[in-house]
Amino acid sequence: MADKIIIFSGKQYSGKDTVAKIMLEEMQNYRRCAMGDIIKLTYGKEKGLSYEEIEKNKPMYRQDLINLGNWGRSQDPDYWLKKIIEQEGNIMVTDVRVPHEYEVFKNSGAISIRIEADRDVRAKRGELVGETDITEVGLDNIKDWDYVIENNSDYESLVEKVNKIIRDLKED
Question: pLDDT for 5-41, tens place per residue?
Fold first, then answer.
């Protein structure tokens, strides 16, 4: 069972992975475990492959990973969420996207961080696709985030905001 879980949410190109990377550099007793990561870790364990090898050769394993992901969800819609929660140590989940995922993690005691960035700012960072999809808008009405980071400025400003959260979390 995970000791502590921090979850991240935000629209595409809001900076979720960047915030997690900054936090992981300072909070080295945590590790990243995104939704796709747990499937890769499980697949690697079954096939005797390292996570790095799967990542390096992702096209070769893609269909098997999709099949395994679908198999898990057919067993239990929460199959992969539970697998993440069952991981040892402290975990950061960088891609919580829909209300049900949010609720499962919050009910497990996760700390929630929402990264917000204006649409025009996000569009400058990358091509916005599927903007009305549930994975983009599903958490827009959640109001009980533990932390909200506005990420419309430069990297240095973001680091400053993230460092305040890190200090706060280390005090707990």
Answer: 999 999 999 999 999 999 999 999 999 998 889 999 9
Residue 78 CB neighbour total at 10 angstroms: 14
DSSP string, 6-63: EEEE--TTSSHHHHHHHHHHH-TTEEE--HHHHHHHHHHHHHT--HHHHHHTHHHHHH
| CA pair distance 34, 29, nearest whole angstrom | 16
Q: Which residues contact 7 (CB under 8 A, 6 or more apart)?
A: 92, 93, 96, 102, 105, 106, 110, 111, 112, 113
Q: Rounded to the nearest 5 degrees, what angle is found at the Cα of 34, between the Cα atoms of 167 and 61?
A: 150
Single-letter residue type at 38: I
pLDDT of 171 higher than 90: no
Q: Which pLDDT score is estimated for 58?
A: 85
Confidence of residue 159 (pLDDT cuts 50, 70, 90): very high
What domains can be seen in the chain, in order of their start residue? 2-167 (3.40.50.300)
**47: CB partners within 8 A, 6+ apart:** none
